[in-house]
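Lab notes, practical 5.
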Amino acid sequence: MKKVILLRHGESEWNRENRFTGWTDVDLSAKGVEEARKAGRLLKEQGFKFDMTYTSYLKRAIKTANTVLEEMDMLWLPVERTWRLNEKHYGMLQGLNKAETAAKYGDEQVKIWRRSYDIAPNPQDASSSESTWNDPKYANVPRENLPLTESLKDTVARAVPYWKGTIVPALASHSEILISAHGNSLRAIIKYLKGISDSDIISLNLPTAVPYLFVFDNNMNLIKDEFLGDPEEIKALMDAVANQGKAK
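Output from the prediction step:
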């Protein structure tokens, strides 16, 4: 049996301010650090013994993984980082307040930008100092692979091949893996694993730092999936995520 924990990072400073973040490298808030600690304590209490960890290139995911592993006394664990687990790139929306953007463009338009499968926001200015193309973290990534905006479909196109080509082979020799990433890169993987339709994926909202367990048999057939923690608390957190893109 194989177990994979998918973990969205703890609350970031821009989550706290209700801003579109995407590939902007924003740190965890104090609340986000505590959320990650809580996740680590829960995973330790439930007896998880990870063999390997995967994170994106973004510090909010990296620090969440480190905090979880520290709580579990497993900071020695091997960690592989990849841009393919980065958050969906929000293009020209990055840095904008979600509620203010909804007030300007309407709740429905912002929901489309946030949650639709194949509609991306307008791209980021490639010449900007904020551009992905000018970020030294990605100096070794071919420019044609670096987005200036993305839809969830685009995120699926980079995250799912990484799942198939790197994580699944690793599970041949590992029993338990932790993936610390982002709302949309994880939604991309979950869509693939559960066969969620393009239309139904819009309603999936992942709360910050709530472990999502996937259990597979040794042939990588999905046996079950479940969030770990109090169901009522998790539902309230999911509803809060869904409401972030609405005008106040």
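Observations recorded by the TA: Strands lie at 2-8, 52-55, 79-81, 176-181, 212-216, 222-227. The CA atoms of residues 37 and 68 lie 6 Å apart.
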